[in-house]
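Milestone 3.1: sequence recovery, worked example.
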């Protein structure tokens, strides 16, 4: 049987020797990276959802670590915030954030990182600017889908009856320009790093 080729993610290419220590350090470092970007926060007066740098970190972690480690890293990030570390947007923490207006976006992060990692491993999207931009848009769409759905339920239960259009105006449309900028940055950054790395090493079992 012919084995399916798997593109090696960037982190495993730079650190090719598999070990639990390597994976643990990547997961912890990745969660800290996302937590740092979560502190880049711009509140908007018409919505409980702020503009943050979290989604950019989520995509980079997924692309850099691959599906399994990307998914685990964002699960650890959520757990760290739930347990009280000030890792959520604006230094927030606690289980209440998952039950609040932005809970759907937070819960979508592991799925988006896993999807991005899968796209990298399956098609090597991080080697090509256009493919990387499309992958970023796909993962952003997943975050918007879960985040806006959750936001709509939260608004209807806690604020007032809210139409689908109103939910989109509060949870999707204001964030599209910023996401396009993030897509462009990632589409330039990752292929450039791959050119520096110079070559792709064959995947190692971990």
């Amino acid at each position: 049987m012919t084995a399916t080729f798997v593109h090696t993610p960037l982190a495993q290419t730079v650190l090719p020797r598999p070990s639990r220590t390597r994976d643990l350090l990547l997961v912890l470092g990745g969660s800290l990276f996302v937590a740092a970007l979560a502190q880049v926060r711009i509140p908007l007066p018409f919505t409980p959802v702020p503009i943050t740098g979290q989604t950019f970190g989520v995509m980079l972690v997924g692309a850099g670590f691959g599906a399994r480690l990307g998914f685990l890293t964002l699960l650890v990030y959520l757990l760290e915030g739930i347990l009280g570390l000030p890792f959520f947007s604006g230094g927030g923490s606690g289980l209440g954030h998952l039950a609040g207006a932005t809970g759907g976006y937070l819960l979508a992060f592991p799925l988006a990182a896993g999807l991005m990692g899968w796209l990298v491993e399956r098609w090597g999207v991080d080697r090509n600017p256009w493919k990387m931009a499309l992958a970023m848009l796909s993962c952003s769409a997943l975050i918007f889908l879960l985040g806006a759905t959750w936001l709509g339920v939260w608004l209807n239960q806690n604020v007032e009856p809210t139409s689908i259009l109103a939910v989109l105006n509060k949870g999707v449309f204001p964030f599209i320009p910023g996401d396009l900028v993030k897509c462009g940055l990632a589409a330039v950054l990752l292929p450039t790093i791959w050119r520096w790395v110079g070559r792709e090493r064959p995947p190692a079992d971990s």
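Residues 10-197 form a domain with the Arp2/3 complex 21 kDa subunit ARPC3 fold (CATH 1.10.1760.20). The first helix runs from residue 10 to 14.
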